[in-house]
Specification:
This protein is mostly helical. About 75% of the residues lie in helices and about 0% in strands.
């Protein structure tokens, strides 16, 4: 099996499994523990190992670099997204936000931002070998992975399912373009972590505390 096809296959299987796993775990374990279990499986049983499998050791040496070459707009766009999402998120913070909530949100954001970019941008960047349509397929599947999350029992997301999937579509497209242009994921990791840090505060305060 050629690696690009295997990458698509692995991603599609994961998404299909999540359509069963997300509602099942959140129903059996409760919203908080079930949602955490889903993400632990996703992070450490999928994103991390698949990211390692589909990227060479040689490419990993520079994959997290911050070099942008001629694309000097990249840092401004990556950080600008964080600032924009941060302002909107802070304005809509629910009651009950404490230092513990912020700490949990930032820790989850760090893990999610690094591992999602490692797989969805890093692995797809390597296997695309410069072919933009293949990376576009990766974006489609990245968005599709968020759909099963909308079936979680008892988990409330600001803006509902449309906001979750629509946000993933917009942000995922921006991060895909940055990774494609720079051939690295350093700035997408920073942007992803920052965006998640702010959005996860409300998620944690509403559902887990």
């Amino acid at each position: 099996m050629q690696k690009p096809f295997a990458l698509v296959f692995a991603s599609a299987v994961m998404i299909a499994v999540m359509f069963w796993l997300v509602p099942e775990l959140t129903k059996r374990l409760g919203p908080a523990h079930g949602y955490l279990a889903v993400f632990c499986i996703y992070w450490f049983a999928f994103c991390l190992p698949m990211g390692l499998i589909f990227q060479s050791r040689r490419s990993l040496r520079t994959r997290f670099g911050l070099a942008v070459g001629q694309y000097r707009w990249v840092p401004w766009l990556a950080v600008g997204l964080v600032v924009l999402i941060g302002v909107v998120s802070i304005a809509k913070l629910p009651p009950g936000v404490t230092a513990v909530v912020v700490g949990i949100a930032f820790a989850a954001a760090a893990i999610n931002g690094v591992l999602e970019e490692f797989f969805w941008r890093g692995a797809w960047l390597e296997q695309s070998v410069g072919r933009w349509p293949f990376q576009a397929l990766g974006w489609v599947l990245f968005v599709a992975w968020h759909v099963p999350l909308t079936f979680a029992h008892g988990v409330v997301v600001e803006g509902g399912p449309l906001a979750m999937v629509g946000g993933a579509a917009f942000l995922g497209a921006v991060w895909a373009v940055i990774a494609w242009r720079t051939e690295r994921i350093g700035w997408t990791v920073i942007s992803h972590m920052g965006v998640n840090a702010f959005t996860f505060i409300g998620l944690v305060a509403t559902n887990f505390m």
